Amino acid sequence: MTSRISTKKKYTTSDSEDSNKIKFINHSGIKYLKDVEIHGSFIVVEGPDASGRSTQIQKITEKLEADGHAVVNAGLKRSDLISKGIIEAKRNYQVGRRTMALYYAADFADQLENKIIPALKAGFVVISDRYIYTLIARSSVRGINKNWLHQLHSFAIKPDLIFYLNVNPYNLIHRVFKKNKSLDYYESERI
Amino acid sequence: MVQVIGNNNPNNVKNDESGVLIVVEGIDGSGKSTQIHLVDRWLNSKGYDVFFTEWNSSETVREITSKGKKKARLTPMTFSLLHSTDFADRYEKNIYPLLRAGYIVLADRYIYTALARDTVRGCDKSWVRNMYSYARKPDLTFYFRVPIETAVNRIISGRPKLKHYEAGMDLGLSKDEHESYRIFQGRIVDEYESMVDDENFIVIDGTLDIEKQQNTVRRHVLRTLKLKNQVQGHILE
Prior knowledge:
The complex is a heterodimer of chains A (191) and B (237).
Chain A: E1 4-10, E2 41-46, H1 53-66, E3 71-75, H2 83-91, H3 97-121, E4 125-129, H4 132-141, H5 146-152, E5 161-166, H6 169-180
Parallel strand pairs in A: 2-4, 2-5, 3-4
Antiparallel strand pairs in A: 1-5
Helix pairs in contact in A: 2-3, 3-4
Chain B: E1 20-25, H1 32-45, E2 50-54, H2 59-70, H3 76-100, E3 104-108, H4 111-120, H5 125-131, E4 140-145, H6 148-157, H7 177-195, E5 201-205, H8 210-227
Parallel strand pairs in B: 1-3, 1-4, 2-3, 4-5
Helix pairs in contact in B: 1-8, 2-3, 3-4, 4-7, 6-7
């Protein structure tokens, strides 16, 4: 029943002078933000639908807050400006795969710049429910070039910690049916 | 196979779409829209299958972009990504399928607009390039070159109030709207000029008479249609 949690990567901060400098996945990153200083930590929880991300995030948040750390939760498709457009676009099933990938990237950029980075600057622990790895994986299985996707999302910042909740698809389907009694169209698209 | 424009992309990749892609680029007030409109009318009158597409006009995305612009809450990255989403939507829905179907596609602004503007706003050039790397290279790109003052005066004379992003106010170049607009347009021109050779722009002098410009444009269009074996007998009349 329990999800196996594996720590994929851990970035240890060095004691060098610029250890607080913002770190982007690609060195060029967001050029106009390259001098931003980060004082918080950035944790990402990845995993498919029904892999138990919300439960784990809730527990981590409770624990961190009990210990006196301020926590901000972030996730995909939550920017109030763009998410409405994405929901609308998905409703009419008319939108192409590349368009969707870019729409999600725009939404993510909005969150990154207006929520995640400001919170990290202010010293919060930011926990993101899914990150660019989900965006890359989703579009990649829909046939979009992987290298293109990696470059597209290379303006993202490096997490300090990434959890991947690894659950096999058979268990996942059962969990989803338990939760919703049906599969979401886009989560279960025929490939 | 779509011919891609990218860093490591040879220019000699063959297009095998049968359609013809014609693009106009230039700053606001350079006269490019007038010229492409006249090409559209001309080709339509000759019975060609023509599709006209405009920058920032996808129905799915435009509403969000204009909301973000009105509230002045777009960052250079979200500005860039939303315009890229808009382009992708038009590309996937119209441009690509219609080119494959043999249409002449006329585009008022294409990927070069994004390359110029987003770079000026501070996005990484190679990042922007990658984003548009799937887009087919145009068969013809007209660049309308005008002195900045000419273009700026054409725009400002009819409109005392400029829009926030249009004037580049998000860049903090100047507190004065018109001054900011001038500086912003000047930087975009520099970006365009840097692409003239590499991207094979056909430079049109946008200060000439409209008819004179149109003649030159039509001559180039005709030559391209001939090259692509798209000429219909009566176009020369």
